[in-house]
Amino acid sequence: WESFLPSQVLVQPVQLICLYAPAYHLILEGILILWIIRLLFSKTYKLQERSDLTPKEKEELIEEWQPEPLVPPVPKDHPALNYNVVSGPPTHIITVNGKECINFASFNFLGLLDNEKVKSAAQASLKKYGVGTCGPRGFYGTFDVHLELEERLAKFMRTEEAIIYSYGFATIASAIPAYSKRGDIVFVDEAACFAIQKGLQASRSNIKLFKHNDMADLERLLKEQETEDQKNPRKARVTRRFIVVEGLYMNTGDVCPLPELIKLKYKYKVRIFLEESLSFGVLGEHGRGITEHFGINIDDIDLISANMENSLASIGGFCCGRSFIIDHQRLSGQGYCFSASLPPLLAAAAIEALNIMEDNPDIFQTLRAKCERIHELLQGISGLKVVGESFSPALHLQLEESCGSRENDVKLLKRVVDYCMNSGIALTQARYLEKEEKCLPPPRTRTGQICIELDCCLGFLFPQIIRMSVLHYSDFTLDIQVLPLMALKPDWVTGLFQYGTNAVRGRMLNFGTGE
Amino acid sequence: SLIQQAGCLCVYLFFKNGISNGTLYKKTFIEHFEQAPMYVAVLTFLGFGVGTIFGYLRDFMRAWGLEKRNVATEREQQKDFVPLYQDFENFYTRNLYMRIRDNWNRPICSVPGPQFDLMERVTDDYNWTFRFTGRTIKNVINMGSYNYLGFAETDVNALKTVTIELQKYGTGICSTRQEMGTLDKHVELEKLVAKFLGVEDAMVFGMGFATNSMNIPALVGKGCLILSDELNHTSLVLGARLSGATIRIFKHNNMQSLEKLLRDAIIYGQPRSHRAWRKIIILVEGIYSMEGSIVRLPEIVSLKKKYKAYLYLDEAHSIGAVGATGRGVVEYFGMSPDDVDVLMGTFTKSFGAAGGYIAGKKDLVDFLRTHSHSAVYATSMCPPVAEQIIRAMKCLMGQDGTTQGKVRQLGKNTRYFRRRLHEMGFIIYGNDDSPVVPLLLYMPGKIGAFARRMLEKNIGVVVVGFPATPITESRARFCVSAAHTREMLDTVSTADVLLKLTSDAKEVGRSCVSVTLNLNNSFLHLFF
């Protein structure tokens, strides 16, 4: 039993080590042991003295601190400071800064803004409900007209459910963060509009930008994500992923390649959110937007969002899709839950506008024809190029070559716009917050209202004036011929005079006599 | 003795910061945040506990097919996608909210004036879906809408100008402020708002919520500090978050908390880099819509002056509702509008319209005209809505020749109604002059029961619980309007639900009736 004595248990291995280990080993170990002992007993290392501020020093710091001004001063000649003021309704003929113009600047695509039927529906609603709703949807701010509008929109779009917001911008900006949370992944086109960008920012999700309309680039990102997922399958199982695209891009005027996107959706199991503010009420045989344009089953799109401020000429926005998806926003859409609901008269106006769209499906063809015509007529202006699809009702005119800096480009385009305005054509410069935009589009002039009610000869006149405006400024190479009045076909001229507004007539004469 | 002590505990009024400051305040400033006894909190948690256990039980039954699943489901083709919702995320909605869902989103079919008509709806599947019966519940007393001054009306004479403008302009704008969406109507309105508030300039926006969320990011950014009241509205929180600035939260209306944050921020600078903050902005509301409290503006202004911070005041609920002539909390405290750097407010409430404004120095407004997200990217305000604001504002300013008794009437109604409820022994929160009157219910079971009983008596109230309030502080909220008659307010305060609560309280000998347990066993009503 002696072998179990503790002394033997301890001593034996030491003896063994001493016998078999080489001498240098023992010396080294000895030094190390001594080193450890020294470390243990040496004075502890002291951090540098903490310098707590004395109350006096604190007061001095507070006294010293000078904040920046709340806002930097805005130069008086800032291009965006002095707004164009429109007197009277912003319809086809508008008075901008006291001058009568033909309106090519607002998004009143279907000309419903001054439609008498829409107005009388709104009047009836005003009589019954007054103006405001005085509450959010949850707290007695849900009116029967809201429910009716939601039902009508769902029916029009052929989806299960629709939900309305009281502001167009807030629609997609609230819808995205309702689903996509921190840690989720959103693949988004770099040309996406500002409302989408804000929605993404609010969602705090992981954002992956792909090149505008570049499906190869999107697929590359999706593949990258797929390999990432294989590394961490547990995380991948709870990471929601979305593609956010626009039907007709506000910033570029072209459409998204939806059929390819759908293929990618099923291949990589990503949901698609589609922003249709420009394409709703514009594209497709019945104005249902990009899905109808491409003949795609609307259920393949997880969520469609659009505003009612363009084609419907009202205020607000809506989302539509399957109830499984849409209903979630009724408790999670911030702009829905925490904002006063849409004034009933605006909902009534939107319902009437939908009625008109349903009763006259040919207006979409008319609109398309006009867009294509204008697009064609605007080709070949030297110095300016037209960007976007031919059927887009918002045309972008862009400088062919930049004149050095963005600032100069903007100035030059402003002169073009001013010239057009003086000639009685209201255009607008597309405005961007340059510091805020993720991928800033180049400076552009935008025409919104290629409206169906504008006479086609005006459509002819319009490119002429843009041509003239280019001619007016020698910054461009001048190789355009301004058509003399004689070259106008007689029916165009009579058409113009028949249009009946003095403004147009006066301008017509100028064409003949003046430049 | 013990019993006496218990009684004292119950009637103990907890005045949070309830001192009047003679130098800063021109009149006494008292707000009640009476605390309920401990057992109420215990029972409330117990209530949520029971609800949660039943929720799990029913989830279990649904999973095994013992209970019908009513919830909408994923598309068959997308079953293998990552689930859009996590099951636990919707637990509360599915198992607790769903039971009392009928008390929200009640559709109305008339003007939201002092009384409204509700569309009667019933459910055949325990609130999963609703069916309209086609009948309307007429003349329900409206204690829910923010119609403080009674401008939600359909009187033909009052709406004459709105009708004319609607006929002239139509409803749409189809453009943004910076492009082609600035109408003469907007210019007129902005001038009037600036004049009404007594400031240099003002800008109006199409949506109140967006006024906050789209303008705060223009004012502050990275390297700036936002000090935000813990009970600020979502729109302020969202705006702060979108700005990219650092956000720190101070306790509700607590000046010590705010001052400490201000001092520390200036002394220590930004975290990690220790650079000085570029600027510090304090975000507060005039009247807090869930607490009924009024911001301690004089103290905040003196703090912000002392520490060179800026003040952003959201007067969503207070503009029109307080102050001798309805000019908001600035007037209420007898201060100058120059004391506040950014005056923000909405037109949804007192003005019975929609949209919001930001007012202040010309520099500020000019900057917003050029940099506001809303001015660049969002559609401008609808002209007839603008006209409604103009007519309401002119009425408040006495410009339209009508007697301007609305603000005074609102003040009278508010104090009367608050006094009645207080006398009956309810715990009500907030300032005596605030038209938002929250009545504390505490138990989750009472939320649904209270609102349903009130509706049976033709009274529409708003009830709120977690997550809109702290978990133990479920409440009913009354919004007093100038358009309410004394009879209506009496009808509400003598509704049998309230009386029952009072008599229950008397039976058990307590003076804080809000905390009594019994509402015809509504506690059980919720969970079984």
Mind explaining what this structure looks like?
- The complex is a heterodimer of chains A (about 525) and B (about 525).
- By secondary structure, chain A is an alpha/beta fold.
- Chain A folds into two domains: about 80-105 and about 360-510, Aspartate Aminotransferase, domain 1 (Alpha-Beta Complex), CATH 3.90.1150; about 115-360, Type I PLP-dependent aspartate aminotransferase-like (Major domain) (Aspartate Aminotransferase, domain 2).
- Chain A has helices at about 5-20, 25-40, 55-65, 115-130, 135-140, 145-155, 170-180, 195-205, 215-230, 235, 260-270, 290-295, 325, 330, 335, 345-360, 360-375, 405-420, 455-470, 490-500, 500-515, and strands at about 85, 95, 100-105, 160-165, 185-190, 205-210, 240-245, 270-275, 305, 315-320, 385, 395-400, 425, 430, 445.
- In chain A, the strands form three sheets. In chain A, strands 4-10-9-8-7-5-6 form a seven-stranded mixed β-sheet, with helices on both faces. Chain A has a four-stranded mixed β-sheet with strand order 1-2-3-13, covered by helices on one side.
- In chain A, strand 5 (about 185-190), helix 8 and strand 6 form a beta-alpha-beta unit.
- The longest helix of chain A is centred in the first third of the chain and has 19 residues, at about 25-40.
- The radius of gyration of chain A is 33 Å and the shape is elongated.
- The N and C termini of chain A lie far apart (about 125 Å).
- By secondary structure, chain B is of the alpha/beta class.
- In chain B, about 40% of the residues lie in helices and about 15% in strands.
- Chain B is built from 18 helices and 15 strands.
- In chain B, helix 4 (about 160-170) runs antiparallel to helix 13 (about 385-395), helix 6 (about 210-220) runs parallel beside helix 7 and helix 8 (about 255-270) runs parallel beside helix 9.
- Chain A: Keywords: Acyltransferase, Lipid metabolism, Membrane, Pyridoxal phosphate, Sphingolipid metabolism, Transferase, Transmembrane, Transmembrane helix.
- Chain A: This is Serine palmitoyltransferase 1.
- Chain A: Its cofactor is pyridoxal 5'-phosphate.
- Chain A: One of its GO terms (molecular function) is serine C-palmitoyltransferase activity.
- Chain A: InterPro entries: Aminotransferase_I/II_large, AON_synthase_class-II, PyrdxlP-dep_Trfase, PyrdxlP-dep_Trfase_major, PyrdxlP-dep_Trfase_small.
- Chain B: Its EC number is 2.3.1.50.
